[in-house]
Amino acid sequence: MSVTLMTALSFSINAQTKNNLQIKNKKVEKIEVITRNNPFGLVYDGAITENTAGKVNIHPVHYQLKGIDIAANVYTPANYDESKKYPAIAIAHPNGGVKEQTAGLYAQHLAEAGYITITADAAYQGASGGEPRHTDNPAFRTEDIHGMADFISQYKGVDATRIGAFGICGGGGYTLKASQSDKRLKAVATLSMFNSGEVRRNGFQNSGLNTIQERLKQASDARAQEAADGKILYSGVATITDEEIAKTSTDLYREGYIYYYRTNAHPNSTFLYLTSSLLDLMTWDAAENMDLINQPLLMMAGSKADTKYMTDEAFPKAINAKDKELFLIDGATHIQTYWKPEYVNQAVTKLVEFYSKNL
């Protein structure tokens, strides 16, 4: 199987910024790549480094989903007792992300609040199985969430009647979709929701409306190439220079590049995806059928996030949600909700309040 990299006319990235990038005297400041030697591969600040009795513990697990091996981490609360019953939360990671990044950060914080949590690498991505690699299919990403519910509902100590769902960025869009049909998910929350279908179709902030048919043709040609000789064509960004980051105009992508390629880089995280994936992505929309959500719903976004418009579009459509709330994290951009303590703490506090009430 051969691989060719193509530059997408429209693509999405998720992330964070710990360093402020500035161009001074036409010289770009170097952004340090942070190396972390965590035994569990975790790349977020304050991550667990060892399992200690009486504290939150992490348990790497594998399970089968539609014949694909899924790699996941389960976090258990302090003083976890498998003979007791705990509420559980399935956490879906951002597009391009993996379980060791922000999804793991939130999983650990929610475990500290008394929940059993699970976050899994999507099928075809991260440490999970599936070929061809980096397939980005909405149906698969939605199935990943159903699969987490399958696994965690059977985990020792979990009360299967009290399972919640939480999705970050692209994982938020897929969590909305999964929750429309999967009523095992009793309470649904999203953070910095990213509607992957809308962005792949229309471009970020509707910047690609004039190129929709061109990109559909590109995806169709890529599918034809795969069928003809097995050559896999990829879109997205494989590497990026500090100068290219500095010139990026949108907060989402500029801060995302720094988060994923510098400060919180993980070898399994990538923004490449099959060009042919656009055939599925561009005809999909996270905000369709929002009226099917009848569970309690919490949607959170940074007040300064340039992705906030996607949450604003989806939230009003959840007309049958049992109880719903739109919570703005004042001053936060999209990526800052992934890592910046003052914003993460606000989100975790709100999540605990929400799940305590509804699970």
Overview of the structural elements:
With 359 residues, the protein is of the alpha/beta class. The chain has a single domain (42-217, 280-358), classed as Rossmann fold (3-Layer(aba) Sandwich), CATH 3.40.50. Helix content is 31%, strand content 20%. It has ten helices and 13 strands. It has helices spanning 102-112, 138-153, 170-181, 196-202, 212-229, 242-246, 251-263, 278-281, 308-314, 341-358; strands spanning 3-5, 23-24, 27-28, 57-65, 68-76, 86-92, 116-120, 158-168, 185-191, 232-235, 273-274, 297-302, 324-329. It has an eight-stranded mixed β-sheet with strand order 4-5-7-6-8-9-12-13, with helices on both faces. Strand 2 (23-24) and strand 3 (27-28) form a beta hairpin. The longest helix is centred in the middle third of the chain and has 18 residues, at 212-229.
User: Can you write the helix and strand succession as a string?
Assistant: EEEEEEHEHEHEHHEHHEHEHEH
The chain-level mean pLDDT equals 92
Total beta strands:
13
Helix content: 25-40%
Note poorly predicted spans. 1-26
* Count of DSSP-assigned helices: 10
List the helices and strands and how they pair.
Elements: E1 3-5, E2 23-24, E3 27-28, E4 57-65, E5 68-76, E6 86-92, H1 102-112, E7 116-120, H2 138-153, E8 158-168, H3 170-181, E9 185-191, H4 196-202, H5 212-229, E10 232-235, H6 242-246, H7 251-263, E11 273-274, H8 278-281, E12 297-302, H9 308-314, E13 324-329, H10 341-358
Parallel strand pairs: 1-10, 6-7, 6-8, 8-9, 9-12, 12-13
Antiparallel strand pairs: 2-3, 4-5, 5-7, 10-11
Helix pairs in contact: 2-3
